[in-house]
């Protein structure tokens, strides 16, 4: 029994030595990986900076004032033609569906507009609207 304890102690010692060696190898591998990553990546300060400014890669010339005016004139004339066509159409959505009927007023309502003090060119009915 005296010899059995030293054998167990030796085996445990060997296992411990083996596991320590493995731990050291893993540590060295991880350290090498970290060094490699740190060398090949930009610093955190560089990553947080502003992105590079974009440069214009197109070689198209800028528009002149004359071409802009021509574009505006063309689009306005197109819009006016479309509006005229829409108004000529009897089914258009912007045209009023019914014609407004003129309301009849009594003399009392007419006098409430104070036509004697009216100095404009409109008639008294224009005031009621």
Overall radius of gyration: 47 Å
Distance between the termini: 122 Å
The proportion of strand residues reads under 5%
The helix content, as a percent range, equals 55-70%
| Total beta strands | 0
Biggest beta sheet attributes: none
Number of helices: 5
Structural class: mainly alpha
Element pattern in H and E: HHHHH
Backbone shape: elongated
Sequence stretches where pLDDT stays below 50 over 5 or more residues? none
Q: How confident overall, as mean pLDDT? A: 74
Region (Disordered): 32-61
Protein name: Reverse transcriptase domain-containing protein
Task: Present the secondary structure layout.
Blueprint: H1 4-40, H2 44-48, H3 65-88, H4 107-112, H5 124-128
Word description of this protein:
This is Reverse transcriptase domain-containing protein. Residues 32-61 are annotated as: Disordered. It comes from Tanacetum cinerariifolium (Dalmatian daisy). With 129 residues, the protein is mainly alpha-helical. It has a domain at 64-89. It contains five helices and no strands. It is elongated, with a radius of gyration of 47 Å. The N and C termini lie far apart (122 Å). The model has no long low-confidence stretch (mean pLDDT 74).
């Amino acid at each position: 029994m005296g010899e059995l304890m030293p054998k167990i102690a030796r085996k445990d010692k060997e296992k411990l030595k083996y596991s320590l060696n493995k731990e050291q190898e893993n540590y060295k591998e991880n350290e090498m990986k970290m060094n490699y990553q740190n060398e090949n990546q930009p610093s955190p300060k560089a990553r947080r900076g502003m992105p590079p400014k974009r440069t214009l890669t197109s070689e198209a010339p800028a528009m002149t004032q004359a071409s802009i005016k021509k574009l505006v004139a063309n689009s306005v004339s197109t819009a006016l033609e479309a509006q005229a066509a829409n108004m000529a159409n009897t089914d258009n959505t912007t045209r009023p569906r019914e014609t407004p009927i003129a309301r009849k007023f009594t003399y009392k309502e007419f006098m409430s507009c104070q036509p004697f003090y009216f100095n404009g060119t409109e008639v008294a009915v224009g005031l009621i609207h």
